[in-house]
Design brief:
Residues 7-91 form the DUF4062 domain. InterPro entries: DUF4062, Fic-like_C, RecG_C_sf. It comes from Methanoculleus formosensis. The chain has a six-stranded mixed β-sheet, covered by helices on one side. A five-stranded parallel β-sheet has the order 2-1-3-4-5, sandwiched between helices. A two-stranded antiparallel ribbon has the order 6-7. The protein is 38% helix and 15% strand. It is an alpha/beta fold. The N and C termini lie far apart (74 Å). Strand 3, helix 4 (83-93) and strand 4 form a beta-alpha-beta unit. The chain has helices spanning 16-28, 32-35, 51-61, 83-93, 112-124, 133-150, 174-188, 198-204, 215-221, 225-228, 258-270, 294-307, 353-361, 371-381, 425-433, 440-447, 452-465, 488-495; strands spanning 4-9, 36-39, 64-69, 97-103, 127-130, 208-209, 212-213, 234-238, 250-254, 275-277, 288-290, 316-320, 324-330, 388-392, 395-401, 469-471, 484-486. The chain has four domains: 4-156, Rossmann fold; 160-224, no CATH class; 231-401, Heat Shock Protein 90 (2-Layer Sandwich), CATH 3.30.565.60; 425-495, Arc Repressor Mutant, subunit A (Orthogonal Bundle).
Amino acid sequence: MKRLGLFVSSHQKEFAEERQAIRDYINGNPLFRRFFDAFLFEDLPASGQRPDKAYLTEVDRCDVYLCLLGNEYGHEDADGLSPTEREFDRATAGGKERLVFVKGSNDSVRGPKVRALLRRVEDQLIRRRFNSVPELTTEIYSSLVEYLAHTGMLRIRPFDASACTDATLDDISQEKIAEFLSRARRSRGYALDPDTPLRKALAHLNLLDGDQPSNAAVLLFGKQPQRFLITSEVKCLHFHGTEVSKPIPSYQIYKGTVFELVDQSLDFVLSKIACSIGTRAEGPTAPMNYEVPQEAVGEAIINAIAHRDYVSNASVQVMLFSDRLEVWNPGQLPPSLSPEALRAPHPSIPRNPLIAEPLFLTRYIEKAGTGTLDMIEQCSRAGLPPPEFRQDCGQFVQVLWRPERNGTTELKMGDQVGTKWGLSGDQVVVLRACVTEKSVSELMDVVGRTSRTKFRNSVLRPLMQAGFIEMTIPEKPRSSNQKYRITDTGRALLAGRETP
């Protein structure tokens, strides 16, 4: 099949990074490289043809014209027109498919001719805005998939962009979307307010397929994602030895949104590995150091959930052994990547870009292709062997090594606060914070939580049920003056003594 020409038009210097990123993205995406051949003028070999004639010739040859508009208009010819505007006019006259992406939202800082061109564009077609390269590639992904589907070249939409069978907008949680928008605004300056209507928020994130929520929408914000996508659950297992064996000491199957699955799986692992608690000598918060770096554990789990093959009937598995942590997810690496390539700088090629984008907006991921390199560095700093990456039986496997035990794997109390009692890292931090009375809001700030309901269910309530903390006004649980404080049992735990 002859590939379609995709012409990238923009001010070359202003968009040097974006232009290269677009070419690398198209060439690295398993779907798009089958259909498109991206053209950048700077890749054109030297010839005797005038540059203005050469780029207009390429516009004539292309099938899709992709334009980036920013603040700079560019060099003007004898008629006062820039190459970008000439190219736009040529694409318009030739009836080309035109995709226009505008960087930034403040049009007042743009040159007058850029603003005039932008008005012309808005009169003719829908343009999309972006603020970063990851946002741009996500918008390009949605636009090109829509183009391929509209032309009949793509008869099956990608999984994350396809409508979730039998799901309606009633199956999406407005509360979860509001929580996401609040966090995205704080983390990345995302444009939408937390009170944005559900449909508008989904449309802005490209999570609608017609009037239906996409699979990505249900996985990210569904009230019950596993009702529609049952294998999206995560299975977490803890073994005392180095091999899979029964009986399994601890086995949890977690359900919920992508965000909830990441948080629950991370808590499972952190509650079962050693954690040393430092002192407040260097600041108001006591530092916590897990035997396997928390950031590396989180990266492995996020990688598995975000980049898994959701069409597979298998689920993500997180398995903690006495000597290592293994994280398995269905699906292979993209053809352009190998397990060995993950140890060197490499491009970010998400399998599910519409799932990756909200994770990026909330800083769960960075979308820069640095995740595995960060894991290697974090393990090295902790004095651990480098992580292992491999493909096995149609699954991608990440292995993080635990420190060697000198003859015993029994963890003591004291510095490893909470390990014996199955407390998560957040529960240990909250327990220490309750040495002085604190409100729910104050405790949520201590551990960086934003969902009051999840915080109560996963952190506060288990600590109270275990008798480690208590309410200051137990006779009025819903009092606006309610605070929480540590009990004698909790103090004994922190001191490393047997609890009463």
